[in-house]
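Dear colleagues,

As part of the handover before I leave the project, I'm documenting each prediction I ran so the next person doesn't have to rerun anything. This entry is a single chain, and its sequence is reproduced below.
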Amino acid sequence: MTQNDRQSAGLATASELYNDDLAPTGPEQRTWRWYHFAALWVGMVMCIPSYMLAAGLTEQGMSPWQAVGTVLLGNAIVLIPMLLIGHAGAKHGIPYAVLVRSSFGTQGAKLPALLRAIVACGWYGIQTWLGGSAIYVLANILFGNVLQGSPLPVIGISAGQAVCFLIFWAIQLYFIVHGTDSIRRLESWSAPVKVIMCIALVWWACAQAGGLGTMLSMPSQFAEGGKKAGLFWVTFWPSLTAMVGFWATLALNIPDFTRFAKTQRDQVVGQTIGLPIPMALLSVVSVIVTSATVVIYGKAIWDPVDLTSRMTGVGVGIALVILTLDTMCCNLAANLVGPAYDFSSLWPKGISYKAGGLITAFIAIIMMPWKILASTQGYIFTWLVGYSALLGPIAGIMVVDYFLIRKTELSHRELFDDNGIYSYEKGWNLAAIIALVLGVLPNVPGFLNTAFPDSFPGVSDMFKSIYTYAWFIGLVIAAVVYGVLMKMRKSPSPSVANA
C-alpha cells in the first residue's frame, strides 16, 4: 500500500501511532502462499531447541514415544490460537502490535506488546547462544581447542564462548537490516536442506549403530516398578503446558506473518501443514539418533552440537554449518520479527522495524541466555511454563475480542487514531487490563516456588497444581473475564472494517 493509498483509506498517517512498518499491508505486499508458510514453519521447527525438547521430557522420566506424543499434542493445541489470531493478520494486514490495540486500547496495547517483546528477547538470546555454540565447537575442531578456557567472572562462560556468541549475533544483523522478505527467502531456501539433513542424520545413526538401538524400547520411568512409578500425570501436565508455551509467543504475533498472506486459506493450510507434524517428526529423529548414540558412544547424547563434535571427517564441518543455519533461520523468524514490530509500536515515529530489531538483539545479550539453559528444570518448567502463564491470558483476550466482540471486523483508521473508538479511557481498556491481571495472578505463587524454591518454600499444593496448567488456566480466566466485562459495557463499540 502506497502513501497515497493509505491517505485515501483514511489512515491517520500523521498520528503518533502510525509508521509505514505498522500500516496495513496492500495487495502488492500480500505475496505469501501456503507453501511459504509451510516452509517458514519447517525452518522454525528445525532448530536445536526443538530437537532437544524430547530430550528434556525423557530426562524427566518419559519413554521416547511418550515424549514424542507430548510434543505432538502440545503443538496441535497451540495451532488453534495460532490460526485464530492469524486470521486477523490475513484479513486486515496488520501486525500483532496494532491488532492488540482493539482490545487493550491504543495506549494500553503497549503493555502486551512489551511483555511479548521481552520474552522474545530471551528466546533470541537462547537461539543466538546455541548458534554461537556450534561456531565454538567448529573452531575448536579446526584449530586444536584454541578457544577453550575458564569461565569469566559474573557472566559464567569462557572468552572463546563469548566471542563465538557475538560472532553469530553479528551475522544476524544482516537480516535485521534487510527486513522480513529476506527472512522469507532464507526460510524457503533452507527448509528442503533441513529435511535432507534430518534424513541423513537418521541414516548415519542407524548405519553406525547397526540398527535403531535399544533405547527406543526403553520403558517409561513412570511404569510399574520404575523409580517414578505412578507419577506420570504429575510430569505430563506441566510438560504439555511447556510444549504449548514453546510456541506461545508465535501464537500472539503470528499476524506479523499472516498479514502478507495472499488469501486466508494460504495461512490456514500452510500453518496446519508446517507446525504439528514437523515438530513430531523432528522429535522422532531426535529419539532415533539419540538411541543410536547409546550404542555408538556408550551414552545418550541429546545435544546435536555435542554429537556433531564427536564425528570425524568433513561431515563435522558440514553438519555444524547446517546447525548454524538452522538456528539462524528459526531465530530470525520466531524471535526477531515480532519484537521488532512490538518495540516499533511503543514509539512509532521514533522506532522503525529495523530499529526495533536492533533493540531486540542488544537486549538479548544482556539476558545472558546460557543461564536459562543451565538445566532442563530451568528451561522447561521455569522458562517455558513461566512465560506461558503471561502470554496465555493475552491470547484469550485477543481471541474473544476479535471473534466475539468485533465479529472479525476492525476499523483500520481507528486503530491509528488515539482519540478513536479504540482509545477507551485515555487510551487504556481497563477490561483488558483487569482480565490480564486476573489471568496471571493464580499462576504467580507456583512460578515463584518453581523459580525460587528456597525463597518461596511454603506455596500450597493447590497453587503448585494450578501452575502446571499455567497457559490453559490463564487463557480461560482472562477470556471469560474480558468477555463478561466487555458485554457489561454500555457501548463495546464493535467496528466495521475499512473497504
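The mean pLDDT is 84. The CA atoms of residues 344 and 351 lie 5 Å apart.

All the best with the project,
I.
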